[in-house]
Write a structure and sequence with these properties.
single chain, five-stranded mixed beta sheet, Oxidized Rhodanese, domain 1, D-Maltodextrin-Binding Protein, domain 2, 3 domains, 14 helices
């Protein structure tokens, strides 16, 4: 090989060597998010020991960050900011929607209850009342938002939402009459209710929620790395002060946590909620199905005969959404003489809820809301078109 040819190969070979070296020393990143109400459990975790254990298990450097800023962590789950997330169930639930897989959790699943003073009949009757909650980013507050939301309420509908440090103090506040309701774990409530019978009652109960710390990791990590991470976290993490992550709740439990606070309410005042089969019957009688999803979704697959009503959704997914932030011009083109059935992507999709409510507020006479949307229509085997 000539001198000139050898010289041309040098940069190429050096580049390959540097690439191989970089790959061999690629650093994994992990974050431990401490639930505000569980700081004691968080303080037992030794960051340096966790780094050392994970690094030894995987054979490559692992950098561990710890934080109590759950708002920042939730943003990181949406941008895949870390290879591994270890934190409360709402963090894992968010990451599992975005390219991560479950390792497990440290404690059995819990139920949370919204309890109110005995004279409060329902969750809906909480309007104008006072609510005690632990810190704003705690799982208790997450549960409260979801249970209120399902009843058509938001924190804005309450007289006051008081955030304090300890969840159990909410039960003491009920005893003292300084709050009207609070959220606690079901086992905490059961113990308190035997001591103070008749003071308060359960207004709503959550579905099972994974307990303690949950761990997830990126699906696109090499399979051998994922296997080594799972093995160490489930058997050897106690050496770093983290309980073994050896319980695997049903995937549906995390799905339901992810949906809490995002699901539309069960009812919409002034609008009749109907099923997919109800909608099919009304459509046969001349009602118009109004699809409020994106144009791409509409063209890909839609309820047969549905019309598309485009609008820009910018407001919060909340019963107290600000309609002025959204563009509902398409409603003006709809035939007001016909019954209108608003639909979108199911109970977690707010577009049909908002459009139906705005239509009712604008004086449309016959407004219906198919909360289950296209997924329910599809599940019933009813006719679709598009694609």
């Amino acid at each position: 090989m000539s001198q000139s040819v050898r010289m041309r190969w040098v940069p190429f070979v050096l580049g390959l060597c540097l690439l191989a070296s970089s790959a061999a020393h690629a650093q994994l990143t992990a974050i431990v998010a401490v639930e505000p109400t569980e700081k004691k459990a968080g303080h037992s975790i030794l960051r340096s020991a966790l780094e050392a254990g994970l690094s030894q298990a995987t054979g490559q450097a692992v950098k561990v960050t710890t934080t109590e800023d759950l708002a920042d962590v939730m943003r990181a789950t949406r941008s895949a900011g870390f290879d591994i997330f270890i934190g409360p169930p709402q963090v894992a639930a968010s990451a599992l929607q975005r390219g991560y897989e479950l390792v497990g959790c440290t404690q059995k699943s819990d139920h949370y209850v919204l309890v109110g003073l005995a004279q409060i009949e329902t969750v809906a009757a909480m309007k104008g009342k006072r609510l005690y909650l632990p810190q704003q980013d705690s799982v208790y507050t997450y549960m409260a938002r979801g249970m209120l939301n399902e009843a058509g309420l938001s924190f804005k509908d309450l007289k006051a939402v008081r955030h304090e440090k300890y969840p159990q103090a909410g039960l003491s506040a009920l005893t003292l009459g300084t709050t009207d309701a609070t959220v606690v774990r079901a086992e905490e409530w059961a113990l308190w209710a035997t001591t103070y019978p008749g003071v308060a009652k359960v207004l709503a109960t959550s579905r099972p929620v994974p307990g303690g710390f949950s761990a997830v990791m990126r699906k696109d990590l090499p399979s051998d790395v994922r296997s080594k991470l799972s093995q160490w976290l489930s058997t050897a993490s106690a050496s770093a002060g983290l309980a073994p992550i050896d319980l695997r709740p049903e995937a549906q439990e995390y799905q339901k946590v992810a949906e809490l606070g995002l699901f539309t309410p069960n009812a919409l005042p002034g609008v009749k909620r109907i099923t997919a089969k109800d909608a099919q019957q009304l459509q046969a009688q001349g009602a118009l199905v109004v699809d409020t999803r994106t144009e791409k979704e509409y063209r890909t697959k839609r309820i047969r005969g549905a019309v598309w009503a485009a609008y820009g959704e910018k407001s919060l997914k909340d019963v107290a959404f600000n309609a002025e932030q959204d563009d509902f011009k398409a409603l003006e083109s709809l035939d007001r003489t016909k019954p209108l059935i608003f639909s979108c992507n199911g109970a977690e999709c707010w577009k049909s809820y908002k459009a139906a409510r705005v239509a009712a507020d604008k004086g449309f006479a016959n407004v219906y809301w198919m909360r289950g949307g296209l997924p329910e229509w599809d599940a019933e085997g009813l006719p679709t078109e598009g694609g």
